[in-house]
Amino acid sequence: MLKEANYEVLGEIRVIQEKTGDPKLEISNEILEDEPMHITILAMQIEEVAHRLNMPIETVLKFIKNNIEVDPMEFE
């Protein structure tokens, strides 16, 4: 007998790998424009990376911040 689930599925996200080898994130329409959910998912991934690398989350965040280059774009 299956246990009754005590959660509600709000939407689904999955990571797929295209034939080219490039990863792609697929998001169901229910949460496609749910910005707080995207932030939650990102935070969960950062926490998982920190756990796997056995380092504080703050260190992972520092690495991310130091490795993101944002160049200003000029529009005509």
Instruction: Tell me the Rg in angstroms.
Output: 17 Å
Q: What order do the SSEs take from the amino end to the carboxyl end, as H and E?
A: EEHH
**Total beta strand runs:** 2
Tell me the distance between the termini. Answer: 64 Å
**How much beta, percentage-wise?**
5-15%
Q: Are there runs of 5+ residues with pLDDT below 50, and where? A: none
What's the pLDDT, averaged over the residues? 84
Main beta-sheet annotation: 2 strands, antiparallel
Please provide a written account of the structure.
Strands 1-2 form a two-stranded antiparallel ribbon. The chain has 2 helices and 2 strands. With 76 residues, the protein is an alpha+beta fold.
Question: Keywords for this structure?
Answer:
single chain; about 80 residues; alpha+beta; two-stranded antiparallel sheet; 2 strands
Provide a quick synopsis of the model:
It is built from 2 helices and 2 strands. With 76 residues, it is of the alpha+beta class.
Detail the topology: elements first, then pairings.
Layout: E1 13-17, E2 23-27, H1 35-53, H2 57-67
Helix pairs in contact: 1-2
